[in-house]
Design brief:
The protein is of the alpha/beta class. It has a single domain, classed as Rossmann fold. 48% of the residues lie in helices and 9% in strands. The chain has 21 helices and 7 strands. The chain has a 7-stranded mixed beta sheet with strand order 3-2-4-1-5-6-7. Strand 5 and strand 6 form a beta hairpin. The protein starts with a helix and ends in a 7-residue tail after the last helix. The site of one 2-acetamido-2-deoxy-beta-D-glucopyranose has 3 residues, from helix 10.
């Protein structure tokens, strides 16, 4: 055989291998069978790793190049981290709903699918009401790992020296899941530096971390008001949700009227909890496709929008107390630094709830879309920025970093879930601190918790 023919065969062979290798590279990362295809839509029941997928490979990975202070001279002088607790069990209320769904599936589901057979014969209802929203082991790990990553991202601030020196302050909501998250964050650091000789305090402060329980106007006008969430109720009765309920009923082989919107939500959370808590792609996830999950996500986002965010002004105003607390820490750090003293509170770690973070993010103007989320504009909101799945997974965190860049040039950088954000209207992702204060001047001069939260507001 002429040598040229061998060459052609050889080249053909190499090319074929090359092509098939290339296909493998493209296909494999998309189809991780351990991750439900709907995992990106779990809203506040979502896993932190879905927001930062590089963490699936390496849970301690950080990317310092996301921090781009304007010059090499910039030094961090203060850092506040406001963190949501880690992965938790469902609350008693949700366990009840999940139990009802489970009973229905056991007694009435007649469809023939292997995943349904698996639920009926192998899966056991292991959630109990006494779990009551407690932090799970995954939640302990969420906070330990976050602590280690933040110490790698800000080695001069979250350091052994600063911790031992008492320059890192911990504040938490009184809820057990938050206290345990705070303990886990501290354990992440003490285990990292092998500190065994000292323990570090934390303060419990519900006025700051659970302000929503103390804001009368919010409680009366929104939280305990049956008509405040009409948009949510209407969406749940609307065509998109009805279709999801019918598809669930078809997949189970039960009459349509047995799958209420509550049932659909319980099924969605069943898949979400199994994944968040145990990292399994449970058979319950087969009740939804991606289209259904997007509808469920919208329904939950809609509720958060009206109950905790832009829907009503008082939702964000209830966080005035946390807003002022944040800026007074920043101001204090600035004035200590300016007067040549060491900054006494270099780092503040505050642990709370999704309900703590969302009103504050709203007050600061983040994730504000041009139009309101309503029961009728699902289709036009597919590109919305208001997505609790990416804003508020377990262990969600807002970090504000104050830099001194020399010559009185102070900068403030906001990060959400370890990703840089920009303050409204600011081109520069790391604006001057004085410009940020100017931007929020109305809130800094007002936004008084007491007067905002009293039921009958004095005319302004
Ligand atoms: C780190 O972040 C920078 C800037 O956002 C980005 O360009 C780069 O690809 C990231 N590196 C890794 C390894 O993710
Ligand atoms: C939380 O912390 C307390 C005290 O350390 C402990 O008794 C409890 O089991 C912890 N775990 C959970 C999941 O709440
Ligand atoms: C409840 O909410 C509705 C809709 O926003 C509002 O019109 C009504 O005044 C609220 N009720 C109370 C008691 O504040
Ligand atoms: C909530 O509203 C109901 C009536 O709508 C009222 O009876 C109840 O006292 C209210 N609870 C609180 C805590 O305001
Ligand atoms: C302010 O902090 C920076 C960064 O740590 C430091 O270089 C500077 O000396 C401090 N300023 C004063 C007046 O201490």
């Amino acid at each position: 055989m002429p040598i040229i023919l061998w060459k052609i065969i050889f080249i053909y062979f190499i090319t074929t291998i090359g092509v098939s290798r290339c296909f493998c590279d493209i296909i494999i990362p998309e189809e991780n069978p351990k991750i439900p295809s709907i995992a990106k839509y779990f809203c506040t029941k979502g896993r932190y790793e879905e927001v930062n997928p590089y963490l699936i490979e390496d849970i301690l990975a950080v990317n310092r190049s996301i921090l781009q202070p304007p010059s090499k001279q910039c030094r961090e002088i203060h850092l506040t981290a406001i963190i949501r607790h880690g992965t938790r069990f469902p609350t008693a209320k949700n366990v009840k709903k999940m139990q009802k769904l489970y009973d229905l599936v056991m007694t009435s589901a007649s469809a023939k699918h292997s995943w349904l057979h698996e639920i009926q014969t192998q899966w056991t209802m292991w959630y109990t009401e006494d779990m009551d929203g407690r932090l799970v082991q995954k939640g302990v790990d969420d906070l330990k790992h976050l602590a280690i990553r933040l110490s790698k991202l800000f080695p001069s601030m979250i350091s052994e020296k600063k911790l031992r020196g008492g320059f890192i302050k911990f504040i938490t909501s009184s809820k057990h899941r938050c206290v345990n998250s705070t303990l886990s964050f501290k354990a992440g650091l003490t285990e990292l530096w092998d500190i065994k000789d000292v323990e570090f305090d934390h303060a419990v402060n519900d006025a700051l971390m659970r302000f929503f329980d103390l804001c009368t106007k919010f409680l009366v006008e929104v939280d305990n008001n049956s008509t405040a969430l009409t948009e949510v109720d209407k969406f749940k009765q609307g065509p998109e949700m009805k279709r999801v309920q019918q598809k669930i009923a078809d997949r189970l082989g039960v009459p349509y009227n047995l799958i209420s919107d509550d049932m659909a939500e319980a099924a969605f959370y069943m898949c979400a909890y199994e994944f968040a808590i145990k990292t399994v792609n449970s058979p319950w996830c087969q009740l939804f496709d991606v289209v259904d999950a997007q509808v469920m996500e919208y329904s939950i986002d809609l509720k958060q929008f009206w109950k905790r965010s832009y829907g009503y002004d008082i939702n964000s105003k209830s966080s005035c107390i946390l807003f002022h607390d944040l800026f007074s820490r920043l101001d204090k750090a600035v004035s200590e630094n300016m007067s040549g003293q060491q900054v006494t509170e270099a780092v503040t770690v505050q642990v709370g709830h999704a309900e703590t973070l969302l009103p504050l993010l709203t007050l600061l103007g983040f994730f504000k879309d041009s139009s309101t989320l309503t029961s009728t504009n699902y289709a036009s909101q597919t590109q919305r920025s208001f997505r609790t799945s990416s804003m508020l997974p377990y262990a969600a965190n807002l970090v504000l970093v104050l830099y001194d860049c020399g010559g009185g040039d102070l900068r403030l950088q906001p990060l959400l879930n370890e990703k840089p954000m920009t303050f409204l209207d600011q081109q520069d992702s790391i604006p001057r601190y004085q410009d940020v204060r100017e931007h929020y001047k109305d809130l800094l001069n007002g936004c008084d918790f007491e007067s905002e939260c009293q039921l009958f507001n004095k005319p302004r």
